[in-house]
């Protein structure tokens, strides 16, 4: 994560995790089912494109999931690709997730 995002708080708002930078948002839509959190879609406002905000919201959300003892279902292609690139995060993916062996 870029240093400029380290102190940006992660907010759980409605059905999404989000960070706000200068009035613009990077967010992940999610569904929570008991001990599992499914990450469905990652998006940033166009003004944040290329800034690293999407990576920051993913990293902060993965840390939240781990800190809260939940298991991840990475349905979002961006999150899936992030975990594939950073396999140490596979530790929080639910082993029953269909694509687990592809991570």
UniProtKB/TrEMBL annotation:
The keyword Transferase applies. This is N-acetyltransferase. GO terms for molecular function: transferase activity. It comes from the Bacteria. It holds the Pfam family Acetyltransf_CG. It comes from Chryseobacterium elymi. Residues 9-94 form the N-acetyltransferase domain. PANTHER family: BSR4717 PROTEIN, PROTEIN NATD1. Keywords: Transferase.
């Amino acid at each position: 994560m870029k240093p400029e995002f380290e102190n940006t708080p992660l907010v759980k708002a409605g059905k999404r995790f989000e960070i706000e930078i200068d009035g613009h948002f990077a967010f992940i839509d999610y569904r929570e089912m008991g001990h599992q959190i499914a990450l469905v879609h990652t998006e940033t406002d166009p003004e944040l494109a290329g800034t690293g905000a999407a990576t920051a919201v993913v990293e902060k959300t993965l840390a939240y999931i781990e800190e809260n003892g939940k298991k991840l279902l990475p349905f979002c292609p961006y999150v899936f690709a992030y975990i594939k690139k950073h396999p140490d995060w596979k530790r929080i993916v639910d082993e029953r997730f269909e694509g687990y062996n592809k991570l």
